[in-house]
Specification:
D-amino Acid Aminotransferase, Chain A, domain 1; alpha/beta; Rossmann fold; Dna Ligase, domain 1; 14 helices
């Protein structure tokens, strides 16, 4: 590894999430000073050997003034050179970048560009403009939108919120009755979220993570989502590296058009009907499978650090790690337990999981930093994860 300047201190926010631990571990192992913060008093990342100090701050959603007071105090106290939000907090920070004592600590696109990919209706329009493939998406605001969905989409269809994580709020409906039941039960005011109906695409799910500089893709990592937690709709719990040229070409169009700078992740479904890749979601932040890239030799947090400190050489790293596997071990363990409870062929299920774990890179279990893995179930049992953990 080429020597680089490690003197810039990094602040990881939303550090209590698994993403936060992956970022902290991958930077700290490179010798970069990492400070961590979250709304949670106790979290898995607090116990990482690479977390120099763990702090708490008020919820940015409930107390934005208190949040910025705390974040700016941390920036000044620890002489922070870069801030890495581990999840959707990047959207809030980009929108309010001017409230940071040093706006340059955030390496992220302008808020308008973030919302172009974050808003499903706007993303659908952008795909059509650039001749990229996306499922038909309809925002549901009132009964007329429901009628529009019934007339333009066929069953089964997907209902999903604009913001969520780990498959929260995503459901597959196969009849008008199921649709209407979910539509009436989804409280948009309570969740401060919008609901969308989306065309159902049958086929395998692929993720594509990137680091860009002014629209140029500097690094990318593609992977097949083999298993998800929750099953069929959640966060990838077991993945395998892949190369899909159709995904690469569509991503180049989108990031080039937006002149994107920073990290981002795309979810594509490979349609069994026509063999084309359809963009179903874009996450303008670090993603739950960031560790898959680490397994392939691509350290996205480190590459973003180099970009943010002006040390990135401009070299391009693409198509690495085909067939390399990684797993969110706790998540995949829960998937295995659910399958053992529901499925026949229990021995085959055990073989499938244990053979997959053999040789896989684990997001959460690191032998040289084991305490976060051990604390995770305690964090779940104590129910210390805040209501805001899903992001904005």
């Amino acid at each position: 590894m080429k020597e680089f300047d490690k003197s810039a201190n990094v602040l990881v926010t939303q550090a209590g999430l698994r993403n936060g631990f992956v970022i902290t571990y991958s930077l700290g192992k490179m010798g970069i000073p990492v400070y961590c913060a979250d709304t949670l008093k106790r979290s898995q990342t607090k116990y990482s050997r690479y977390c120099r100090q763990y702090s708490t701050y008020p919820s940015p959603h409930r107390d934005p003034d208190g949040y910025f007071d705390s974040i700016n105090d941390l920036i000044k106290r620890h002489d922070i050179g870069l801030i890495f939000p581990a999840y959707d907090e990047v959207i809030f920070l980009s929108q309010n970048r001017s409230r940071l004592v040093n706006p340059k600590v955030l390496i992220a696109p302008p808020y308008e560009n973030i919302m172009t990919v974050h808003n499903k209706t706007r993303l659908d329009k952008l795909c059509k403009q650039l001749n990229c493939n996306s499922p038909l998406t309809i925002e549901l605001n009132d009964d007329s939108d429901v009628e529009k969905a019934f007339s333009q989409l066929s069953f089964p269809m997907v209902l999903k919120p604009e913001r969520g994580g780990g498959g929260w709020g995503v459901t597959f409906v196969s009849s008008p009755d199921q649709f209407m039941k979910f539509w009436h039960e989804f409280d948009t005011q309570k969740h401060q979220n919008r609901l969308f109906a989306q065309q159902y695409i049958k086929g395998p799910l692929y993720g594509y993570g990137v680091l860009c500089d002014k629209g140029k893709i500097l690094a990318s990592n593609c992977y097949h989502t083999v298993r998800q937690n929750p099953i069929g709709r959640g966060t990838p719990s077991f993945r395998r590296g892949a190369v899909i040229e159709d995904i690469e070409s569509q991503a180049e169009k989108i990031f080039g058009y937006l002149e994107w700078t920073g990290v981002c992740q795309c979810d594509f479904l490979l349609n069994e009907a026509d063999g084309k890749s359809y963009l179903v979601d874009m996450n303008p932040r670090f993603w739950g499978s960031t560790a898959q890239a680490l397994a392939c030799g691509l350290n996205f947090p480190h590459l973003l650090y180099l970009l943010g400190t002006g040390q990135h050489s401009g070299a391009i790293a693409r198509r690495t790690g085909v067939d390399v596997t990684s797993s969110w071990l706790w998540g995949d363990f829960f998937v295995m337990c659910e399958r053992l409870f529901k499925d026949h062929g229990k021995l085959q299920t055990l073989r499938e999981h244990f053979s997959g774990w053999r040789g896989a890179y684990f997001d959460d279990l690191r032998i040289d930093d084991p305490l976060p893995f051990l604390f995770y179930p305690i964090q779940k049992l104590l129910a210390v994860k805040s209501e805001d953990a899903g992001g904005f």
